[in-house]
Design goal:
Number of helices of chain A: 9
Strand content of chain A: 25-35%
Structural class of chain A: alpha/beta
Shape of chain A: globular
Number of strands of chain A: 16
Helix content of chain A: 25-40%
Oligomer: homodimer
Largest sheet of chain A: 7 strands, mixed
């Protein structure tokens, strides 16, 4: 028997999440049955999507959804041997039982010098999101100009680097001088701090006077309104996130985009990486290869302690993280 | 020499157009030079696009843009013989000179029992817009459910009928009981008057409880916000028009669509028929064939007199027309 901890959504978020919306629950887990494994969380992911999904995929009293890298500490399933690591959709739990159906073994050829937490970031869901957004949604071509916002985040930082790999000009927006410096290190062509520019419109125009072929959208809200105006004719927009609107108690409003979309004949598509699950394995290998070749650099913002999951989540929503926000147990 | 009349954009529209925004100008046209023809307008088109295009393609003092069916009344160009008819982008002019480069001869096999004004509607630009929106943008498939608003208009009425030809379920929205009756005659599966329904959301849900695969958007504004919520996962939206926002002195605002586009993985694309100009000739033949076979029915709202161009235009913007709004000289 194992004493397990889990973070519960005690109350649906109303506006920005607060401590009292979460509750730590303890429970005893029984021994795994035949075919089952007992998992212990090593790294847990906090991601922007958890905020909007809390409303549509969770009810009050549910364990917070989420992915983790876990170690198999008891095994009655030969596919997941004792001591091996898996990526699991166990939610915000310190320990969990699984029949293996929702588990993905961490890549067997995982390099010794890379932390397993990368399986929650650049070589995990955020990396896949960046890759599919670029290849499947935008169809980004060499020589094109791409705009990405929340560019220093887990997805955005991979987006910009893949676009560079593909021979594109990359313009990135982020929310601090530190993030701007990080993005310059990554090789972004133009970077700016959206919080300190005088005019977002002027900044976007001067970063690419001829406009943007593609826009990888992570922010939404007023940024989207301004960015859409700067697209080239036939521009494509991959809508991955809308973090500036996730914590609205009352939905923000802005000018309708339809007229601009007609005049410029723009295409805008919302997407989630799960759509291309059949390509995940091959895609993760490509992401890992780019990491090993040094073409995909990464940074993590690590919060220590399972007890700090809510704080890590709220910090990430505020933009505390450069790179992927991770909780290390 | 011919005394020609032309309607000028005297002042840029501020909100809904008014009489004083237009001015009638007279001028004398000289004889056509070698290679030129002298045209006399027979039917002129008034279309929604003229309102937003007035801002981006015209300056004060310019002749209003637009297309007409004209008769060649003098010809020094053998490609356009005396007495023949052409579709011309002459704008709001009673007479004009052309070197032929912007003229399209009216289809030689034009049936005697069909008015030439159809070349400005169902077998013209609005028909092409409907066809390309369905085939090139939406990729509408048999068995799918399509929503179209401004469904009794020049484009919308063709959209719904082509969707029926393709074996789809069609739900249409229009703004009067007369239009609703017309759309039922055309074979639309579900039709409603958006001005009198208690709840647009409930009406859309009950018309297609399983949601919509495709949405042909002519209206924009609050309709778009409600309709997007009713799309199926992976739904496609062709943005053709946004007539409910064209006359805003100050842009209307609404909730940002990004979050819904992500959750449902929607695709939204703005378009203009001119993108597929290389297919126009073949497409017009298909439209004409459907008309002859009775599969594409049509109705026109004809205003008599070149003097009434502004009134016809403003009436169309108010929704006076069922089917295509035409001015007969």
């Amino acid at each position: 028997m194992v004493q397990a901890k889990a973070w519960i959504l005690a109350r649906h978020f109303d506006g920005f999440p607060k401590d009292s919306d979460f509750q730590l629950k303890e429970e005893e887990l029984s021994e795994p049955k035949d075919g089952e494994v007992l998992l212990e969380a090593v790294f847990l992911s906090v991601d922007p999507y958890m905020r909007p999904f809390s409303r549509v995929r969770m009810k009050e009293g549910d364990v917070m959804i989420g992915t983790q890298v876990a170690k198999v500490i008891q095994s009655k399933n030969p596919a997941f041997p004792l001591g091996s690591h898996v990526v699991s959709r166990s939610g915000w739990r310190s320990h969990s039982l699984s029949d293996g159906s929702d588990l993905i073994p961490v890549m067997s050829e995982w390099p010794k010098d890379l932390p397993l937490s990368l399986a929650l970031g650049t070589v995990g869901m955020p990396g896949l999101t960046a890759l599919y957004g670029i290849e499947e949604v935008l169809g980004l071509q060499a020589g094109e100009t791409l705009l990405v916002n929340a560019a220093a985040g887990a997805v955005g930082s991979v987006v910009g680097q893949i676009a560079k790999i593909k021979g594109c000009k990359v313009v990135g927006s982020a929310g601090s001088e530190g993030k701007v410096a990080f993005l310059k290190e990554l090789g972004f062509d133009q970077v700016f701090n959206y919080k300190t520019v005088t005019s977002l419109e002027e900044t976007l125009r001067s970063a690419s006077p001829e406009g943007y072929d593609c826009f990888f959208e992570n922010v939404g809200g007023t940024f989207s309104t301004v960015a859409i105006q700067q697209m080239k004719d036939f521009g494509r927009i991959a809508v991955c996130g809308s973090i500036s609107t996730y914590n609205d108690a009352k939905p923000q409003t802005g000018p309708y985009p339809q007229m601009t979309m007609i005049m410029k004949q723009l295409k805008m598509e919302g997407f989630m990486q799960s759509r291309w699950a059949d390509k995940h394995q091959e895609s993760l290998k490509r992401l890992m290869r780019w990491v090993k070749e040094g073409k995909l650099q990464w940074r993590e913002h690590v919060t220590k302690g399972f007890a700090n999951m809510p704080a890590a989540f709220m910090g990430m929503l505020k933009g505390d993280n450069t790179g992927k926000a991770i909780v290390a147990v």
